[in-house]
Amino acid sequence: MPENAAFAASPTPSADSNRRLGWTVAAIAVCGYASFRFLAIEWAVNPQYGYGWGIPVLAMYLFLKRWPTRPDPQPFRKPSFLAAAAILLALPYLPLTVLLEANPDWRLLLWAASCSYVAALFMALAYASGRPWVRHFAAPLLFLLLATPWPSFLEQPLVQGLTHQISVATVECMRWFGYPAVVRGNIIQLANGDVGVNEACSGIRSFQTTFMLAIFFGELYRLAWVKRLILVAGGLAWSVLVNFSRTSFLTWLTASEGPEAQNRYHDPAGLIGLGVGLAGVYASATFLTRKASASAPAPAAVTRLPRLLPIKAVVITIAWLAAAEVAKEAWFRSRQPQLVATVDWTVQWPAATEGFKEEPLGEDVKAVLRSDSEESGVWKRADGSEWTMFFIQWEPGRMSAPLARGHTPEICLPATGFKQVGRSGNLVLNAGDLEIPFSSYTFLGSGHRWHVFFCIAEDGVARDPNMDLSEENYLRELAPKRRLLAAWQGKRHYGQQVFEIAMRGYASEDEARRALQSALPSLIKRKG
Fold this sequence. Notes:
Layout: H1 15-36, H2 39-45, H3 55-66, H4 79-90, H5 93-102, H6 107-136, H7 138-143, H8 152-176, E1 181-184, E2 187-190, E3 193-196, H9 205-220, H10 225-257, H11 259-289, H12 311-335, E4 339-341, E5 345-347, E6 357-358, H13 363-369, E7 373-380, E8 386-394, H14 400-405, H15 409-415, E9 419-431, E10 434-445, E11 448-458, E12 460-462, H16 469-475, H17 480-489, E13 496-504, H18 509-523, E14 524-526
Antiparallel strand pairs: 1-2, 2-3, 4-12, 5-14, 6-7, 7-8, 8-13, 9-10, 10-11, 11-13
Helix pairs in contact: 1-6, 1-12, 4-6, 5-6, 5-12, 5-17, 8-10, 9-10, 9-11, 10-11, 16-17
């Protein structure tokens, strides 16, 4: 049968067409799983991206909404060009999946995987029905990209900045009503308790969700582009206003009735705020749709069928993805025997020190950390300095590294009112015969200069005796070179533990480092 015989006058598909269509849908599903499965870790770790689970369903719904108004297919005239482009797009999948297996939180590669999948869908549309369908279905396909977390350079300053401004506005509001309050980062301090704008490290959780829904409703109602921009801008402003109202209510409740009242209403207020925020976006979308509804597109009179992908091409695609998965597993399994358990140490708390006090982390903090165990304590030393120590552990698993990496001092401390003023690099301190790698920071907070020493350790490192432990700790700071090294060494899913000490009362970082080196042998011990 000639290649274009399917475009006869009758649009009724044959049995062969139905079979090829089934294979095509299977390939789309397999490719989608291969591209988005790493995103599922971010959806689970970061609550603000939890809506990602529903993005494929919403995208399919938008696609089906556009289906009745689709234009007649005009298949791409050079399928060989598309085949070559598809091969070039598929070849990087193997190194990409290896790198993401070792670095599931590398957002640059998450975007690469998402864009590759969407690009493959566009090429399949171009092959089947040409430019008319590519233009017609572009919005539902691009909507899939909203499942990918925002780049960190955009997310951190924007969301955290808005979160801080909500805290500042809430404090001003409380002062108008006669309640003394002070803002410290994203924390509001009252005379009888503290209130966080959501969790200090997380920012405005509904912000990204509102952005996604504004785009969804704009496409669902086929709004003009100007109205879509108005809907997005208005939705984000509404999200900030709702979060301000929620924070003001919880702050007033804490100031008037105490922290127990805040604990009782924290979750219900969050759910109500989310519902009000989403309802506002929906109401705005329906308002903007009123004048456009009369001119809704009429169903198209389609006289030709699209050209379906050859079964051979679909089978090759699925086989390549399966082969890449097998090769990835073989790579990591072959490298893992070269790794040895190195986290053979734990902490011993200075309980006998006068003034030592355990400070259990709050339930809201534990919910954010999602750790398997967490301890913290505070004490004063004879030299007049004050020390705060944290020890947090995550058991081996796919989410252990992303969770540990998401709670470093430069992320969490600024959200609680500390200002980073120094970063001294990496150092290795000795605890008897143990070598502990640290990253060193200097912060200003609560009227004091704080020196913070931070260590993330994991269950295995390369056996290479020349490995510099300060470089190994730097790997946790996510420099691209270190991420590549992790994949090369075959490191994945290892348990993580965070050891952090913040101290005040020392004039310089060198003085604080010497004090830590002196005390470290009494704070660290071997397991068992």
